[in-house]
Structure formats: C-alpha cells, structure tokens
Amino acid sequence: MGKQRKVTIILYPKCSTCRAAVKSLQSKGNEVASRDIVTDTPTAKELKELVQLSGLELKKFFNTSGEVYKELGLKDKLASMTDDEKYELLAAHGMLIKRPIVTDGSKVTVGYKEELYEQEWKRGRG
Length: 126
What we know:
alpha+beta; Glutaredoxin; 4-stranded mixed sheet; 6 helices; about 40% helix; Tscrpt_reg_Spx/MgsR; Thioredoxin-like_sf; Arsenate_reductase-like; Arsenate reductase family protein
C-alpha cells in the first residue's frame, strides 16, 4: 500500500458530527490534520479556493441550520448579496460555515455523509 494521503478537516471541535468525520477519515487510511473553524476561520480567499475545488455552489457552504444564520436573517438576505459579500461574511463568522470541510488540496467535500466519504476519501482512490 502507498503512503497515507494527508487531508485537512476544517471543523468545530465540539461538533459530534465533525468528530465522527475525523474517525471515518482515519479509518480510511488518511492522515488527518484538524483546523478549528472558529479560532482559525478560513479567509475569503481560502473559501473561494475551497468552493472552486468542491465544484459546489457557494450557498452549499452556508450552515443554514446554525444559530448565526438565523440571527443574521440570512434566509432573506443572501439572494441580494454579491459573492464577495458572501465570502467576507463566511470569513467573519466561522460558525456560519457548513462543516466539516475536508480537502487534500485537489478536492473538497462539505458536510459529513459516510457514503460520500467512502467514495471520496477511501485510500487507494483519487
């Protein structure tokens, strides 16, 4: 077998889903580096790169079930915001970002679903 793939997971340490995602990644033979989404929030520039690598729409990076999303009333505001404004907003509020985000530098997944991890992060693929 080849050497372990290194992945970075951007997570909220108290989030049980994020902890499950780390275990899943490790069980698939990945070397996992964790990054706290609150104390080391991705910059707007980093977020743009993550969105591009994910192939997903920017709106998929918003934690729509989180408190910050509701407090800021974003359900009604996002449609009228520019992408740059959205990136700045995400960079300013780590808890507004959907988590966990996993990247190996060439691809990105957002959120945790075991089927997705099995497909994208199992060693020997990608």
